[in-house]
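SAMPLE LOG
Freezer: B-3
Tube label: C17
Construct: single chain, 326 aa
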Amino acid sequence: MRRRQFLHVLGGVAAWPLAARAQQQAMPVIGFMSGRSPEDSAYLVAAFRGGLGEAGFVVGQNVTIEYRWGLGRYDRMPALAAELVDRHVAVLVGVGGDVSAGAAKQATSTIPIVFGLGGDPVKAGLVESLNRPGGNATGFTLLTNELEAKRIGMLHDLVPGAAVIGALLNPNFPPAVSQLQQLEAASRAVNQKISVLKASNDTELDAAFASLVEQKVGALLVTADPYFDTRRDRFIAFAQQNRLPTMYQFRDYAVAGGLISYGPNITDMYRQAGVYTGQILKGAKPADLPVLQPTKFEFVINLKTAKALGLVIPAGLISYADEVIE
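STRUCTURE (predicted):
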């Protein structure tokens, strides 16, 4: 090979990685932050990526995602949001609880935001209205924080003879004040005594479990909270070990062996968040995308778990269920 040909080929080889890097840099980067953990959110990330696919974006081909996880520690969320803003992501996704959504909004007023939370985004200051969000943020609300009264009522119907129903609450979760008010009002309405225990870390959770056993509560409500979601397996194991009928917020608890759950279809909401993110990458403005709300709440009963607990589910509750796991 002549020297001039050799240098031409060598130059082309050297340029390949440069071209590859330039192509990667040209890809939009999505910053995805959650107050939950990657282990309990794998199916939600898959749903989000599925929604991106519907909008024409495939991770690794024409878009990349950088993940940040709060692991149930809400004090970490502002720093995680700041990291992604400094990374100059094209869209900032703040899901996995109200704290994550709020941290995203506090971190930037210019980068488009797709949020996911369990409460009212208007009251949280994320948007001006549900139909016309305004500003740089839109997303979805699961409204699951607003369902504690419904859950305590259903749990009372399940175990009407329970002298005391326990309720676990995370005091570091901003909606906890409203959740407690719901629980107290609902329990008074059905003349049900409740014992509210608080936990925001594993040490406090261990103490709460011990107190529940000591008090011999007849049933347990695990309130809506992302930290509790990261400890799903611990809750289910505790309930099974102590033969304790327990109510949860999402279907995945019942699928994993929990007794009953009542809440929105979180998987579909993450899919739709992926679609919104893709639309924004194509040029849509968050201000023009209405905040998504659940249209249906799922009541799921695991009859296999009920049998293991020696519990007979009232026929009325079974007929009311959207899904029965046998």
